[in-house]
Amino acid sequence: MAPAGAKRNILERLDAGEIVIGDGGFVFALEKRGYVKAGPWTPEAAAEHPEAVRQLHREFLRAGSNVMQTFTFYASDDKLENRGNAQRFTGTQINEAACDLAREVANEGDAMVAGGVSQTPSYLSCKCEDEVKSIFKRQLDVFVKKNVDFMIAEYFEHVEEAEWAVQVLKTSGKPVCASLCIGPDGDLNGVSPGDCAVRLVKAGANIVGINCHFDPMTCVKTVKMMKEGVERAGLKAHYMVQPLAFHTPDCNCQGFIDLPEFPFGLEPRILTRWDMHKYAREAFNVGIRFIGGCCGFEPYHIRAVAEELATERGYLPAASEKHGNWGAGLEMHTKPWVRARARRDYWEKLKPASGRPKCPSMSTPDSWGVTKGHADLMQHKEATSQEELKPLFEKAKASH
Amino acid sequence: MAPAGAKRNILERLDAGEIVIGDGGFVFALEKRGYVKAGPWTPEAAAEHPEAVRQLHREFLRAGSNVMQTFTFYASDDKLENRGNAQRFTGTQINEAACDLAREVANEGDAMVAGGVSQTPSYLSCKCEDEVKSIFKRQLDVFVKKNVDFMIAEYFEHVEEAEWAVQVLKTSGKPVCASLCIGPDGDLNGVSPGDCAVRLVKAGANIVGINCHFDPMTCVKTVKMMKEGVERAGLKAHYMVQPLAFHTPDCNCQGFIDLPEFPFGLEPRILTRWDMHKYAREAFNVGIRFIGGCCGFEPYHIRAVAEELATERGYLPAASEKHGNWGAGLEMHTKPWVRARARRDYWEKLKPASGRPKCPSMSTPDSWGVTKGHADLMQHKEATSQEELKPLFEKAKASH
Amino acid sequence: MAPAGAKRNILERLDAGEIVIGDGGFVFALEKRGYVKAGPWTPEAAAEHPEAVRQLHREFLRAGSNVMQTFTFYASDDKLENRGNAQRFTGTQINEAACDLAREVANEGDAMVAGGVSQTPSYLSCKCEDEVKSIFKRQLDVFVKKNVDFMIAEYFEHVEEAEWAVQVLKTSGKPVCASLCIGPDGDLNGVSPGDCAVRLVKAGANIVGINCHFDPMTCVKTVKMMKEGVERAGLKAHYMVQPLAFHTPDCNCQGFIDLPEFPFGLEPRILTRWDMHKYAREAFNVGIRFIGGCCGFEPYHIRAVAEELATERGYLPAASEKHGNWGAGLEMHTKPWVRARARRDYWEKLKPASGRPKCPSMSTPDSWGVTKGHADLMQHKEATSQEELKPLFEKAKASH
Amino acid sequence: MAPAGAKRNILERLDAGEIVIGDGGFVFALEKRGYVKAGPWTPEAAAEHPEAVRQLHREFLRAGSNVMQTFTFYASDDKLENRGNAQRFTGTQINEAACDLAREVANEGDAMVAGGVSQTPSYLSCKCEDEVKSIFKRQLDVFVKKNVDFMIAEYFEHVEEAEWAVQVLKTSGKPVCASLCIGPDGDLNGVSPGDCAVRLVKAGANIVGINCHFDPMTCVKTVKMMKEGVERAGLKAHYMVQPLAFHTPDCNCQGFIDLPEFPFGLEPRILTRWDMHKYAREAFNVGIRFIGGCCGFEPYHIRAVAEELATERGYLPAASEKHGNWGAGLEMHTKPWVRARARRDYWEKLKPASGRPKCPSMSTPDSWGVTKGHADLMQHKEATSQEELKPLFEKAKASH
């Protein structure tokens, strides 16, 4: 592991041409471990089960992550409340616990703490700019108090809301990342990736990019379009990417949420560590230097990214002491035909079988998500209760 | 969770008709978390990183496991040594640490501690019965000292060696499980599952069954054959099953180790939680009452087993507080078409796509594993060093 | 082509160790050409459109067939009638026309004419032996009058009915083949392939084997079981196989009729010519010497069989003048990367893609066919009208 | 069948809003029947085996075709010669025989005869406009002498050469179709489908469109782009489409020739009749009125097109007397669960399995075809001999 202590700012690192490796998504990983509920996806585990959150931070740190994102996704009081959980902890308690856990583990290695905000129900309910910004401001106050190292505005489907977030986060004086969850077709209003990036840089973002919703190669392609837009506009920025660890060639513009397998049947789509090598190399080649993951990433996925870029970074991650390069550990295997797999060529060429002969390769995204006539409904997709949605459902049905 | 404190013996539970839920395999889960090296697969993490092992125990406990298997797989000094690691801990230290961790977490809930032994290199090197038994005896000494609740002899490919293990373990006076890693074709000498089971019961095993190497449905089918053999012989036993969490319809008799995807490309084969429901129900219907998992199982897989059998057991596991029944948590989702998936029917019928259109459904097991002419070599597949195998390799090559 | 004129009996050929190549199934091939109606599958085209039937005979002759089967499948008057066509031709006219067409083309090369009978609705309606035999006798009269070279009793699902057919056909003094449409599980009463074969040989069949319902490798495997049965019983026979040209790994005991794709969605399952090479070689190795095809076979499939066995037969078929060995014709292609495919190795290794990413590899046979409770109904599956079946349908539905 | 006799010009029909149904490709269909050699793909069968060519014409006529294309593909003397066959017939004999066969069968129903020219080796060898045009002129002379009803310039990869062909064909005074074998990416020089269409219409083509190289939906999409181009330019034309009967989602710009399965492993990609219904409807909806097929089409595929458009055309084709609408013929089937498939809904929803669990859904086009460095070679891909290509091969290899 790189020497700790020499903790430099993310911008100092990126300006120096270094690679910053992100972590993976916590909600999916902790759902599989039994600490997050799929559906609400709220982060109360930070307070309820700190040992589980701390352990996951540690695993990503060992795997090579330079960034510990605070586990504060969806952690505003109103969000926590409307998710129906009678909470044993307040939003503030959860947010502060999450900051403390991230800092504790970051201090164990060469990692920075990043606070985060993401898209709000208020924006989709057509609340005004001031109101949305005040939500971001309240979240920022905690991160400033806990003195995180930098801020990430991530998981935005509308560039306008992301711009507002950036403007708020800039007031902290900390470096600001802006990451959208869009694909090559642009944001949900049809603003192209290139135009989105230009607007975010103009709003003050130091680092722009993409996270969640699509597979690694699609996300890298979209960041490439952002980069080209920024360069065409004569601007400067750094770039980040934190994709899914699921293959999603059959997604529509809404991403993996519209796949029929979301969220409980995605297993056959999980990327192998070798897929991650290709991703890391492609991201690097495109010029992205903040490279991490989102939903589906497990520690070994991040380790694969770190191993692919070990020469460029100059060191291997701690967890590589438990991993032979390109399967070299198999040289220890007792069966000779397994030992024969201890080589890069074998794993690069393998097209892994699914063992599921009754399953197709691609599924059709849900008709709900793609039906144009349901636009009204989709505009309101973040409405806070099913009650509120009822009239929209009626309308949608009537339009058939 | 069921009330702790009322800790009863595994045989008391099974005799009373209760379901005992096992845990999942530690080597695969901890490999992904960065604490076990694929190839050697040794358990030094018990001493090196106890927090990671403790956390995994806790997750399985929360998921519903009644059994904490000590993380002592391949933990004899000779095995640890020949795996080529300059170890910072002795075998005894690792074994004792593993027992302490299992006991610590077992005491947090309604779980028993199980010590384990598995097949030895000595048996395959044609060592005599006394020598092989003395190895099991040395391992047993630690488990007796640490006072585990019962013993499991597991992962045997030859029933004869398993019989020897059972005979040794019986001397402890503790209940003994015997679990083979074979499929419906029987052990590697061609002894049928039914005959294997009869021999194990006669050797003194209280519980017999299958673990590892094959997917759940194949393992359940094999245990059914064991049960039929035992009943035909007029004997009595309890039954256990701890399969892989990978779909392996294309395996030959050696199991998933011969699949080209083993061990680093198995992702598309991972079972969903809904596949686990089917497995748990089928195992229960067949009359198996000790139901757990092996390689590939994550805590959410065990939780699915516990949820499927919640009515029969009379309670849900702790981790179900973070999981709606059959996807019910999605009722909280913000997108209506995702909320529409909050029902059993949807998930039971889903045939999940792989998102990998260039990959087949089934692969062909490695030619090494299936070539009859390599029988010599395969008999020696557990030889302790590559040096020893060299002459066999030459012979195998010459026979082409 | 082998010299015509030297027309020897099929038994003389087989006794001399020669390979006899059959033709392909006419109903499927002519359905695609627009002359047979799927559902009734009746052969009125022999009289209505003789040019189409003659042309198909010629194509199989050119492809290497030594046998011209008369196109008389389902050609009894009662069958023709209940299929609901107001026929412009009597059954006798159709049968005689079919015999004449087969003879005309057989005389153009080294081919014999085979008349055929197949399973009857009467047998399934529980008519007595005498009645069923009298049906076969009426059909035989036409074949004797037209002096076909030998007889084939084919497409029987119950060995008992096939025995009756053989007994009738033997009275003609012509060589008799008996071919069942069963798989390795045996006939619909559970009689094993080996036992079926013994009974057929004892009834007088000179050649026994399998046709239709399953893919080539399954059929070859079943004939192998028949051969082993005959040899165990100390009997002697020749063996034949005429399988489907569709891959059917997912069939139940009723064969491809129960696949959801039958009969209008079978395209993705069609064997390539290279699959046929493997089939021909395997059939030969097993000891089968009358090797042909059934539904799905097109002339190029038979040509592939003849090309695989060209060395053993001593000559190539006429149509090979339009086919390079193992793709050698591609050496003439204008694109160099296509020319690079003019070699055996390329085609043997190719795993052809389906171009259908939303389709699975295997489908589940229809629930109708596999539901045990529908046994009553299935026993009556050849009942002559839907009217008669009504009460059975009601019963079947009520049993759900 | 529509009344014969009332033979109107193709333009009269299209101007009246009628649908004209084309035939299928002869080289692939006759290759399977044993009369055309894959590789050279030359049409000597018109003279050698007229009965086979006549029969295929008849089958397409029965299936609903209004166009009998003369079987004259690649039938210039130079082409026939360099394909290496010592021909028993001159090019003129073959061409004249083909015209006579097409006319003979066209006269049996409501069909027109179309003569055809296609891209020349000379164009790719950089011969001048005059030389290329003189080749087309010589071919046209035969068609004029035989008085075909209209002309088709088809299978062009470069719009410039197609323009030259149209200019020559226009001199005959007959209606002229121009059909390119390109996809949505445009011709091999990158001219977009819209621009190609405009140039062809300006050159004098009455009907423009696409044939071969891509699957039906891709071809329809490309014709739609052509139509939009023509309309944007304020021009008028009719539109035609004659696609492959193979699913080709994984093609690059060179079409199916670059798929590894071309030409002997394409079976799993063959369209079902139900796929053809979707194709015919989509083509009609887009405004295409000359709808036919190319390689892979069998008569039943054309019949499916005619059945889908039966209401619009006002009649069913002759071969529909042997085909129930949407599987209605299955109502006659003896097995009740097969009868249950006699409905549109069943076949429309079916996702047919391939029965090939070791094959992927998509393959990767040959590296030859996609390697940018091979551009030199590809420009010369139609060079007339391997000798000429040698230096290019050397160059290509050296560039690796």
From TrEMBL, chains A, B, C, D:
Spans annotated as Disordered: 351-377
Pathway noted in the entry: Amino-acid biosynthesis; L-methionine biosynthesis via de novo pathway; L-methionine from L-homocysteine (BhmT route): step 1/1
Keyword Zinc: yes
Major enzyme class: transferase
A GO molecular function held by the record: betaine-homocysteine S-methyltransferase activity
Cofactor: Zn(2+)
EC number: 2.1.1.5
Binding annotation for Zn(2+): 212, 294-295
GO cellular component: cytosol
PROSITE patterns in the cross-refs: HCY
The Hcy-binding domain, residue ranges: 8-309
UniProt KW keywords: Metal-binding, Methyltransferase, Transferase, Zinc
Annotated cofactor note: Binds 1 zinc ion per subunit.
A single BP term in Gene Ontology: L-methionine salvage
Subunit field text: Homotetramer.
PANTHER family the UniProt entry points to: BETAINE--HOMOCYSTEINE S-METHYLTRANSFERASE 1, HCY-BINDING DOMAIN-CONTAINING PROTEIN
Functional note: Involved in the regulation of homocysteine metabolism.
Protein name: Betaine--homocysteine S-methyltransferase 1
